[in-house]
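Field log, afternoon session.

UNIT: design team B
ACTIVITY: writing a sequence onto a fixed backbone
BACKBONE:
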């Protein structure tokens, strides 16, 4: 799990998605399910938890993680605006996304309405009034601006929606934004984990060298499934990736050119 306390929060850590949420509200339910769904899809996601923050050093680490991430997922819950940490994160997310075209905020309205985040109701407005006792007018103004701007971004309203349904939609959208192509695999694959780990060790995960790996054996024993699992786990490390299957069938039908076009189109993002 990629959190501050697991040793992955150094300034050199690379994350694709930053999850911002109010711990007591959603840590053990929606956000936990969303995190694991994103992680299972091969997305490098940072799940922030304000309960483990300690001092300015952690604050600096959080800001660096935000700056390196490409997708921001603020989970607006009833007590989100009561947390100075959440408001700091949201302000920095907005700042980073406004400076780079490849960074995007995708808001999730968990148990609030967009109007609450727009400060049109008392919910978030009252929370900001309490902050006025401890923070400057300029800081409060920045937080208000961040909330109102992000609330206008198209996101997901959780009202009357099942968590699983929305989480699947969010994962698909994030994959699209990151231009990842995941291989669909059956659930509850038996005995594949050890094989995946063994191959990952052989590939020397994290190495920048070029590797070739051949998986051979009789038909029907799961070679393609294993290759797909490896592809899912590693694809997030590359800007471009492609999985070509049924190569023998294409070759026997004289359709190698079709495979070449398929490969090139995934990297050029153009249908050939």
């Amino acid at each position: 799990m990629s959190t501050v306390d697991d040793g992955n929060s150094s300034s050199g850590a690379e994350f694709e998605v930053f999850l911002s949420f109010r711990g007591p509200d959603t840590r053990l339910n929606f956000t936990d399910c969303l995190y694991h769904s994103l992680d299972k899809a091969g997305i490098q996601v940072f799940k922030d938890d304000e309960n483990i923050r300690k001092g300015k050093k952690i604050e600096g680490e959080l800001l660096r993680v935000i700056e390196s991430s490409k997708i921001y997922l603020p989970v607006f819950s009833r007590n989100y605006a009561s947390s100075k940490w959440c408001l700091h994160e949201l302000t920095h997310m907005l700042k980073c996304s406004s400076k780079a075209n490849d960074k995007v905020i995708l808001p999730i309205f968990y148990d609030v309405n967009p109007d609450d985040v727009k400060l049109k109701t008392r919910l978030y407005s009252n929370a900001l009034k309490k902050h006025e006792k401890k923070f400057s007018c300029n800081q409060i103004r920045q937080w208000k601006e961040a909330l109102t701007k992000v609330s206008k971004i198209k996101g997901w309203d959780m009202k009357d929606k099942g968590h699983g349904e929305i989480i699947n939609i969010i994962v698909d959208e994030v994959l699209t934004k990151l231009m990842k192509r995941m291989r669909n695999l059956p659930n509850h694959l038996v005995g594949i984990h050890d094989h995946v780990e063994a191959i990952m060790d052989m590939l020397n995960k994290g190495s920048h060298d070029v590797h070739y790996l051949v998986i051979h054996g009789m038909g029907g024993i799961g070679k393609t499934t294993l290759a797909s699992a490896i592809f899912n786990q590693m694809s997030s490390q590359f800007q471009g990736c492609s999985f070509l299957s049924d190569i023998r069938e294409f070759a026997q039908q004289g359709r190698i050119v079709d495979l070449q076009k398929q490969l090139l189109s995934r990297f050029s993002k153009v249908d050939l």
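LOG NOTE: The mean pLDDT is 82.
NEXT ACTIVITY: expression trials, pending approval
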